[in-house]
Amino acid sequence: MAQGDKWVDGNAGPVVRPYALTGGRTEPIDGTALDLIAIVVASNPAGLLSDSLDLSPEDRRILSLCGTPVTVTDIAATTSLPLGVVRVLLADLILRGRVTVMPRRSRGEQPSTDLLKEVLHGLRAL
Length: 126
Hints:
The chain is mainly α. The chain has helices at about 20, 55-65, 70-80, 85-95, 115-125; strands spanning about 40, 70, 100.
C-alpha cells in the first residue's frame, strides 16, 4: 500500500451507493408504507434462507434478523443500512412472500389505563 493510501481499508470491500441496492428506487414498487415501528417477521422462519439464490446479501442479512419479530428501525440500525433502503428492501421481501408485517394491536387489546398507572406507581416505588 502506498503511503498516501493509508486511509483505504482493503478489507472493507467495494463501496456500493444505497440507491444501487434498491435499483435506484426510493419508494417500494407497490407503495407499501412501513412505519418505523412496524414489526416484521419471516414468513417461514424454519426455512429462513433456504432457496436463497434470488436474494442479495442485504436481503439475506435482513431475513436473518427476521427469524424473530423485529422492527424496521432495528433492522436499519443492525444492518447499518439507511432507513429508506431498508423500507424498499423489506417491501420487496413482502411482495416475494419472504416476510410479513405483524398486525398492530387493536384498541381493545391494549393495556388499560389503570394497569399502566399501576406499573408507573410500581416503578416509582423502586
